[in-house]
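Figure caption, in words: inputs first, then the predicted bound structure.
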Amino acid sequence: QGKKMAQKINWERVSDRTVGFSGADIENMLNEAAILAARIGKKHIEESDVEEAATKVKLGPAKKKLQSDEDKKITAYHEAGHAVVTHILPKMDPVHKISIVARGMSLGHTLIPPAGDRTHETKTRMLQQITAMLGGRAAEEIVFNEMTSGASNDIELATRLARAMVVDFGMSALGPVNLGPQYDYDELGKAQWYEPAQVSPAMQEKIDAEISKIIDAAYKEAIGIVKSRRKIIDAVVEKLLEKETLDREEFEKIVGKKDNGSK
Ligand code: ZN
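Bound structure (zinc ion present):
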């Protein structure tokens, strides 16, 4: 309310892009968009301002970082790896944006906003999420025969999800047994009481083995996708180095439409 918006904003696209945003996130985003538009002397807020503001709210402001061409190229391959692996996996939502502009702690990012609210996550989708998270590292390894520290956050998230599958969701060969810490929640979902996991060292070893199995299989799959789509990844990288940020249309022009999006 009270904000001067341009006429031709595609609100459907904005709403697709902000699934999972809280009311406060959206308010924050529109305030940011107004500031961005005003800063460059625009009379109305345009969709590009809203897009930039949405990214800023979630990932922090864009940072000018001095990067060598070699570093940029590694970042581009890392992000293209995430994006193409995500694009190929049938249960993953469409890629909304890929960027090698540094923000917050990250050198680049690939945005995959959920195509809708989900109340249930399936085992299949979790495995594909882990594979997509490892797509960046897989591309580094295949293209440069090297590993960088840039993948540490991906590895942390992938491991955390694999662990949750084993210890919280009973989705491994160990069966539907809660092997993690015990929590007690009040009706608002706030943890009131917590007890560390009570597992024997022998069981802990099995848990670790199951987590490794999940990660190994996902990484192998990511490597396979990167190897078989190398030409497409090269084309995405070339465009990324030229433009720094690709939106969904630009990305799909190279890789084709996602044929089995969850929408
Ligand atoms: Zn990554």
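The beta strands are 62-63, 97-99, 102-103, 109-111, 182-185, 191-195, 245-247.
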